[in-house]
Amino acid sequence: MRKYLIILFIAFISILNCQLNQLRIEGKAELQSGIIISKGIQDKNMEQAALIVFLTDLDVDMVFRPANGLVRAVDSKNPGRFEVYVSPRERYITVNATGFKEFEVVLSSYGIRRLQSGDVYQLELTGDVKVTNIPVLISCNQNGAEVFVDEVTQGKISNKMLTMNIGTGLRKIKVVKSGFGTQEIEEKINEKNNSFNFELTPALPATVEIITEPEGATVYIDNVRFGKTPKSSFFNAGTYPIRIEKENYEPINEQITIVEPETKKIFTLTDIRAILTVKTHPNATVTINGRDFIGGISELKTAPQVLKIEVTMPKAESITRIVTLQPKSVETIEIYPEIETGTIQVVVIPNDAKVEIVGDGGEYYTSTGRKTFIDVPTGEYTLTSSADGYKNYEAMFTLSADETVQEQITMEEGSDVPEGFVFVSGGTFQMGSNDGDDNEKPVHSVTVSDFYIGKYEVTQAEWEAVMGSNPSNWKGTNQPVEKVSWYDALDYCNKKSKAEGLTLCYTWSGGKTIVNINANGYRLLTEAEWEFAARGGTKSNGYIYSGSNNIDEVAWYYGNSSNKTHPVGTQNPNELGIYDMTGNVLEWCSDWVGLYSSDSQTNPTGATTASKRLCRGGGLDSRTQHCRIACRSCAKSGSSYRDIGFRIARSAK
């Protein structure tokens, strides 16, 4: 009988061991260099101890029994860390943990071949925990509340309770009911801890502010559209799923807990766009999705997609590539169409002359002084050189494949600027003013090309030499001509052009004036050219009047004219050396009067039709307000006035 009982006991122990969990060591032992063992910690043989540190993620009681006995009590002050002091040359340590089979740690199996005094090793101890389902009681003050365990529904509260079978271990329990604040706990479930009570309270709206970086993301809380960020509104307190979406960014899906009175959350979105660089020739055009890039693309951010990239270039066959851009990828592609090229060598005197070479395919090269240009596409080219104190030089040539063209230039001293004119280098400026009349608004960007402008207003002597008479009210050889209509001014320009063998700028057809602004003859200034020159062109100092903020320094006007015109050039010039653009007489411009556009413009010529023509600059009868550079005046083109004259211009082409 006794033998039978012993056999049953052994069988019971075997069954029990089969149900226990298994401990194990993760990886190899790591020798620690930062921990020093006191020499006073010694084993029974008076040798300095060694230290084995066990790190574990198991929250159970553990007992460590070295084969040669413990040197001192196991230190377990820090959760998950056990310090076991052992004799040097220890071979194994037995570990007993609640709910686990006894585990023998053979040190040599984990890389500790020979343990010595003062050594410190670290081992990671873990185990496979078998989950056992046990009954758990949830009590709640609200019938109908739904219970979730690890986000999986378990049923609803009835008669103020719910009984369920769930696995042991760390579990997240949540109780939810519409109109009440959600409650959530995280507990370790076991036989001793398996009953939990929830008290739900009515949910009250809380102020919720959602901010994203970048802004403009769409937010959904509990699958209800909350709005676009940054967004602040009300939402019932509780824990809800939140979803945040924005094109070209990774969506965010997580939980948000809203508490009273205010909840503020900031989310950083992750950009999933690809970065694309396309390298090619400077004058090649890269086309992607109908958008053109000249000279290639540098670090363009674009949505992940399959792209068709086309590279075109004058004098070369186009190249097409299909590229797949993955999220967050960085792609650099080199596409160089093959073209036939040659070499251009330029030698110029003076050696500080500026050289510009323009090809028939849009190629552009520039240098100062001598220069060799290599790998230049074949074709027709125009070369110009310019320098202060010299006349401009221009030549045309053809470059063939593998050819070297040599241009040896000796420039002629002098100037290309016609006598009595000032060269105005083109540029971009802000036309109009926000401080004057409504017709000066809006301020807008205007670009004008190079042109020549008369240094002075047309004088009575100049008028009489061309027209044979003098209509002016105040006679004086060097005083500006006035009492001339807009048509009279155009007639003067054409007759002067014809007398000098220049191409006429003005012709008439069907009662309409046709302007050839690119002709080399004389003409009136466009309003944009007039204002650009009056402001000082590219040398502008931003004055209110042309050349100064003190009107008496630059103009004959109501305050100092004594009610008459004065000889031209007797006041100070502006930054470009042009006289009387403020005061003396107003000056006819070629444009019809019209309102400004806010759009950027290049060489605008004004309205297509109107009842009056523009005149600018103020005159002998004008108040200071009407002498400002931005001020606009107008008059009937067929009428003449005692305070309106004009100055002439020529295109610089």
Question: Which structural traits does this protein have?
Answer:
653 residues, 5 helices, mainly beta, 8% helix, four-stranded mixed sheet, disordered N terminus
Show the helix and strand layout.
Elements: H1 2-19, E1 22-31, E2 50-56, E3 62-66, E4 81-86, E5 92-97, E6 103-106, E7 120-128, E8 133-140, E9 146-149, E10 152-156, E11 161-167, E12 169-176, E13 183-189, E14 195-198, E15 205-213, E16 218-221, E17 224-228, E18 231-236, E19 238-245, E20 252-258, E21 262-268, E22 274-279, E23 285-288, E24 291-294, E25 297-302, E26 305-313, E27 316-325, E28 330-334, E29 341-349, E30 354-359, E31 364-368, E32 371-377, E33 379-386, E34 393-399, E35 404-410, E36 421-424, E37 427-431, E38 444-448, E39 451-454, H2 460-467, H3 486-499, E40 506-509, E41 512-515, H4 527-534, H5 551-554, E42 586-592, E43 601-602, E44 613-616, E45 632-635, E46 644-645, E47 649-651
Parallel strand pairs: 2-7, 8-14, 15-21, 22-28, 29-35, 38-43, 42-46
Antiparallel strand pairs: 1-7, 2-4, 3-5, 5-6, 8-11, 9-10, 9-12, 12-13, 15-18, 16-17, 16-19, 19-20, 22-25, 23-24, 23-26, 26-27, 29-32, 30-31, 30-33, 33-34, 36-39, 37-38, 39-47, 40-41, 42-44, 44-45
